[in-house]
Every structure is written in structure tokens, then in C-alpha cells.
Amino acid sequence: MPFGQAITRRRGKAIVSLAILLCVMYLGYRLYDSKNDATELHHGTIEETVPAVTVTLPTAVPPTETITLPGNIVGWYEAPIYARVTGYEHIVQEIRCVSPSRIEP
């Protein structure tokens, strides 16, 4: 084997070895970085899941206190119910417009 071919073959093997080494290093870095990101996300999620709410227990108020609400309160059994029928208002207006003298027997 001539001297030039041996150097070229060695150089080719070195380049392929270097490329494989770089690929392995890149994949290792990606795995390391993704693991760090996952750990950081996990810790951040744990911190955010802690509720920022203060819980208190209810206390009784004196019976003299009243609640003032806007409007009138009427029980459901006392509340008037009005029917809403399509055209009902139109019929009522027509009945009101007809005078007794215009009604034909």
C-alpha cells in the first residue's frame, strides 16, 4: 500500500471518528439540557400549585344584624306569573281598538 493512501485512509477514519464523537457529545448535551429543563419545570410547577388563599372559620354575628338587599323579596308562591305568548299584545291592542258600535251581530 502506498504511503499516500495510508494517510488518506487514516485521515478518513479520523474524520468519521470525530463526527461520531461530536454526534454523541451533542446527543449527551441535549439529554442533559432536557433533564435540567424538566427538573426546573417540575420545581416551578410545585411552587405554583401551593394555593395563595387564606382560610378562615365562620363566626356567628349578633342576631340584631340584618341584611339589606336591593329590591323587594317575594316568595315564589306569592310571585305573580305573567304568560308570554307570541302575538298576545297585538290581540289585546286590537280588542281595545274595537268600539262597541263597530261590532256587528
State the gist of this model.
The protein has 105 residues and is mostly helical.
How would you describe this structure to a colleague?
The chain is an all-alpha fold. Helix content is 54%, strand content 0%. It is built from two helices and no strands. The chain has helices spanning 3-49, 88-97. The longest helix has 47 residues, at 3-49. The protein is elongated. The mean pLDDT is 76.
> Averaging pLDDT over every residue, what do you get?
76
Report the sheet-strand fraction: under 5%
Low-pLDDT runs:
none
Number of continuous helical runs: 2
Largest sheet: none
Pairing-aware structural class of the strands and helices? Answer: mainly alpha
Helix fraction, binned, reads 40-55%
Q: Radius of gyration, Cα only, in angstroms? A: 44 Å
Secondary-structure element series: HH
The number of distinct β-strands equals 0
Span from first to last CA?
132 Å
Categorize the overall geometry: elongated
